[in-house]
Structures are given as C-alpha cells and as structure tokens.
Design the sequence.
C-alpha cells in the first residue's frame, strides 16, 4: 500500500482555514448574542395571574399553626 501524503505546510490546508473561520464566527456570534441580551433585556409579561406553572410568583405566606 502506497500512501501519498501532502507535504504542504499547515497554513496551506484549506480545511484548516475553513474550520478556523467557522469556529471564530460561532464564538463571535455567541459573544454578540450575550452582549445583545445584556443590552436589551426582555420586559416582564403581564400574564394576568400571580402563578406560573401552578407555582406562586410571590413569596408563599406561612400557614397559621394551631397550637
């Protein structure tokens, strides 16, 4: 079996540059989304009730104990 290998340096490999570009673009996109989320927070929604998923949104009041 005769294996031919490319003896070109690492910086001449197009897959290296494509992979590097995709990695850097995805990291930049993540940072951009974090910055935008911090800059423009979502306003609270008026749902008309004080419960979400049957859980009260306010602190629960302690029941009166009968001793």
Sequence:
């Amino acid at each position: 079996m005769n294996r031919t290998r490319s003896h070109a340096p690492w910086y001449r490999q197009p897959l290296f540059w494509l992979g590097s570009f995709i990695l850097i673009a995805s990291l930049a996109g993540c940072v951009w989304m974090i910055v935008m989320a911090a800059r423009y927070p979502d306003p609270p929604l008026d749902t008309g009730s004080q419960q979400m998923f049957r859980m009260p949104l306010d602190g629960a009041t302690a029941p009166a104990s009968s001793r």
Notes: The first strand starts at residue 51 and ends at 52. The radius of gyration is 28 Å.
